[in-house]
Amino acid sequence: MLIKKICTSAIVLATLSLxxxxxxxxxxxxxxxxxxxxxxxxxxxxxxxTGIKVNILFAKKGLIERVKxxxxxxxxxxxxxxxxxxxxxxxxxxxxxxxxxxxLTANIPSQYRDPKQHxxxxxxxxxxxxxxxxxxxxxxxxxxxxxxPEFKGKICTRSGKHPYNVSLVASVIAHQGEASAKVWLxxxxxxxxxxxxxxxxxxxxxxxxxxxxxxxxxxxYLGKMLADxxxxxxxQAVNINFPNQKTTGAHVNVSGVVLAKYAPNKSNAIKxxxxxxxxxxxxxxxxxxxEYPVKESVPASKLVASWGDFKADQLPLAEIAxxxxxAIKLLDEVKFDL
Amino acid sequence: MISNFxxxxxxxxxxxxxxxxxxxxxxxxxxxxxxxxxFQHLIDTVLLTYSLNTLFLILGVVxxxxxxxxxxxxxxxxxxxPSRTILQWALMLPLALPPYIVAIVYTDLLDFSGPVQQFLxxxxxxxxxxxxxxxxxxxxxxxxxxxxxTLYPYLYLLLRSAFLGQSGALFQAARSxxxxxxxxxxxxxxPLSRSAIAVxxxxxxxxxxxxxATVNYFAVSTLTTAVYDTWLELGSLTTAAKISSLMLLAxxxxxxxxxxxxxKQKIYQRSxxxxxxxxxxxxxxxxxxxxxxxxxxxxxxxxxxxLTLFYYALSYFSESLNARLWQYTLNSFWLAIIVxxxxxxxxLIVNFYQRLSPGxxxxxxxxxxxxxxxxxxxxxxxxxxxxxxxxDLLLNQLLVEFGFSRVGLLFSGTLFILVIxxxxxxSAIAVxxxxxxxxxxxxxxxxxxxxxxxxxxxTIRRVNLPLIxxxxxxxxxxxxxxxxxxxxxxxxxxxxxxxxxxxxVYQFVSxxxxxxxxxxxxxxxLMGLLPFIIVNRLLENAT
Lengths: 338, 543
Known about the structure:
The structure holds two protein chains of two kinds.
Chain A: H1 2-22, E1 27-32, H2 36-50, E2 53-58, H3 63-70, E3 78-82, H4 84-92, E4 96-97, H5 102-107, E5 119-132, E6 155-156, H6 163-176, H7 178-191, H8 200-208, E7 214-218, H9 219-226, H10 232-236, E8 238-241, E9 252-260, H11 266-277, H12 279-289, E10 292-293, H13 302-306, H14 317-322, H15 324-333
Parallel strand pairs in A: 1-2, 1-3, 6-7
Antiparallel strand pairs in A: 3-9, 4-9, 5-7, 5-8, 5-9, 5-10
Chain B: H1 2-30, H2 38-44, H3 47-78, E1 79-80, H4 84-90, H5 99-110, H6 115-124, H7 140-165, H8 168-176, H9 181-192, H10 194-210, H11 213-217, H12 223-233, H13 237-261, E2 280-281, H14 284-315, H15 317-320, H16 324-356, H17 360-370, H18 377-401, H19 415-438, H20 443-451, H21 456-467, H22 469-485, H23 488-493, H24 501-509, H25 514-542
Parallel strand pairs in B: 1-2
Helix pairs in contact in B: 1-13, 1-16, 1-17, 1-18, 1-19, 3-4, 3-7, 3-10, 3-12, 3-14, 5-7, 5-14, 7-10, 8-9, 10-13, 10-19, 12-13, 14-25, 16-17, 16-19, 16-22, 16-25, 17-19, 18-19, 19-22, 20-21, 22-25, 24-25
């Protein structure tokens, strides 16, 4: 009875899926680490302009494993993700293919795409240091300062294992070597006001609550908090500072896209990639999520622009991504999250 | 006849194989060669802390759930006091709340800017964080508390029915031999319920072992954290599989030991007066004590989180109400119904296998089919992908060889794999409940039926199944509720454009925007409660 049931349901489901997957030719399939509220409006615009239907699967963990397991049968055309390490990982696992597109090369500055055209950044974001506007005011500060004894018990951050922090640690390793990075990380850990927890917004809230004076956080969270009535007071309790302005420059990470190696709808997928790098999508990224567009002619949102220009770390992203595993291991070694 | 015989022996193993195929794939990976040194790195750095955290978490949740569940199960099953009839079903309700939602609600209530501390500050005139001490909810203790509050109903459910099924005469005999009620409880009722306690606590232990969302939210690193880190960040499936396998091994050893230690106990329901007819009437401080304990538990585990969700949902109602909610509710509902039905069938198959041919083989069938419950959702998801993507790749290759066109990911790209993953995770619950309700049906009934000329199938249909009707219903409902709440496997394995209520809730919760998630979260609870209340009504009217 059970076997019968399973067989019947399998056949029914399979037929259904065949209808959805195989018969619609004018579509494109996206695996997205990025959130629906941001991606959906962009995709709607794309469908409106081109008539191509976009199927999306959103998840924050494991999508790379899924593509890998699915192999040459994978329905995924594009993978959208944040963090350079994930883009490079897709590339290193041989799950991507090169895209030769004049639109992409014209829209995306060379430091924000793979020289071999396997990955393309779509937006950039800064890992800022927020400071309490009440107790500190605007601060001229470096990531390295956060490890010095005068900041003891004053710093809040999310889990060290979160990709944003891992990449920051990786960039410090890339700049000053593992041994020196370890000393820095130990100092930072010793200065934490509490065990790493919550997300970047929760750290700003902690500053408002007086738990700490400084918090690590990406730039766009400030914009998002100002857009949520409940969180406006949190946002107003902090100043946003661009770190390392007199030294190496602020750590900048990216969100980006790759074309899957076995993409079944390749030409549609490239159309979507080009669309994502172009004016309209870039504007949505800037306005909805307060990220910096990669396309230079598209301005940042008014709010983001009001924070002023800044000096960005000039180290190539690929160099930082190379230190990803070393960074995770370092975080374990100093027991950062424990 | 002969073919029938083979079928009934083969079927349970086929079912078990289906459920442990992913776990076999995982263990297989654990033994492959890995030169990355990741495992050694973990041993050198954080593995000890992770293991201890895991151990304390499980011990803590198991003990606290026991402390919560035992008294209330006894009160509602064997005592008479005001509001007992409400409490007996209401105390199961916390099951419908996803633990990570409860975790967020409590964090919002109890952290520095939450209402509790605000109230304390305004009351005591404290200004800032350094003026006073307040325990941090985001800690191991917080995680133990929240998991116990949401998981104790498993034990409560099994204990209550164990107490209800026990002969009241035994208890009365113990009393007449001079034992105080308390002593009689500890020396008669409790030992008689040992099987229910064992099953309930192992379900709770497995669920805690598999939890990621709650402990992660509370910033507690457990072995599950290590599995995620090594697999998804360091890219070492081997190490992740090793840790998962070790966790499973430890669990299997524990459960086997427990089973072994009561190998000689066989307890079956006898005829005669049950507790239902011989309830103690609680009076005086005992009455107030029972009321206070039961209602505090219910308020803490269910009413307070629910009211908070209501408050959020109302204040963000227009933002969170949209047309797609209905579709997501239907998706969740059908998925949960299918999974619950199949899990029940699986549970009956393996349990009757044990009933008809008891022994080590049947026992292992039961244990093995339950293993998946202890594996964290995302790990199950990827583990399920391993065999089924391979089957798909093979199938497509064959089709091409024979000149057909490819069919794509027939199994792993459709809802099929989601259903399988849910079954791997949740069959344990159904298997456990059927196991414990079947354990109460004396085999002498089977023998009587067989001696009256009924064959095995007829005995099952006409004797056993009617006697475990309640167990079957609760098994189905429990799996249904779990499936409604399930997040990580749904997130990763669902087909394109497919949302369940849980994945929809997660969109907001992952960004700590609980207010927007409150309405769909309430729908999860409501959907879990409806069948539950209906069935409870039916059962109460029937008896």
